[in-house]
Amino acid sequence: MGLLADRGRVLFASSILTLTAVPAARGAGIFVDACGGTENFVGGASAVISCSIGTAAVNTIGGGTGVAQLNSFENHLSPIHFYGDTDAFVGTATWTMTTNPTWDVPTAWTYLELDGSVKLQGPGSQLVITLSGVLGGPAQVITRTFNWTGVPTEDILAIPSWVEQATAATAVETLTISITGRARYDVDGSPVFQGAAPEPATWATLCIGLAAMLGIARRRRRE
Question: Residues 60, 152: one domain?
């Protein structure tokens, strides 16, 4: 299954980002961390920021990367770590990555994927996670809720979404996590939001990649 998933992602990513006559990408963006700071970074990667939310201990870590160019962009929020350390913990953390692509087309295909690990470790624990990607709309949103079922659990996420959005001067990826009790979310890969306006020659590969990702998602639901 891992090999099939990787092949599907590679097909989709390679097709959606295959363009003709693309200038050099701009590694820059605006990263808003869960600790309340805003960083205008240049060079592709923001700083990784740690802080405390809802507890005295450091329990929140976040960073990201962003690249934009003519007719494409790629936003990543990674690494991200957030956890509740007691049964009484209640807290919410939000991270945002914004890049500024330029366009000579009215619409573009955008791809959003929520990945990472969710662990519920104590009685009554709950974790609610929402990942959104907004270009010019309609917005893409992936939301999942995980509830304590009587035993500790771990869920490995790989949830894809793709739509056609209107183009715009900003591409905004937002990740929000709310935790009650002893639960945690960790990712060192990346919740990703990316988009492009493929040339006609790439549509066949794009469709194959979409079909592969859809088949993977359906098999995971059956399992």
Answer: yes
CB atoms within 10 A of CB 3: 7
Distances (CA, A) of 78 to 86, 149, 187, 197, 198: 25, 29, 7, 25, 26
Q: Which H or E run contains 218?
A: helix 203-222
Half-sphere exposure of 69 (CA within 13 A, CB side): 17
Instruction: Look at residue 36 and tell me whether its pLDDT is greater than 80.
Output: yes
How many angstroms separate the CA atoms of 127 and 122, rounded?
12
- In terms of domains, do 11 and 121 share one? no
Q: How many domains does the chain have?
A: 2
Residues 157 and 210 in one domain: no
Reported as a single tens digit per residue, the pLDDT across 186-222 is 999 889 999 998 665 554 455 555 556 555 555 554 5
Same domain assignment for residues 11 and 65: no
pTM of the full structure = 0.81
Q: Is 131 helix (H, G, I), strand (E, B) or coil?
A: strand
The yes-or-no verdict on residue 180 having pLDDT over 60 is yes
Domain of residue 186: give its range.
20-197
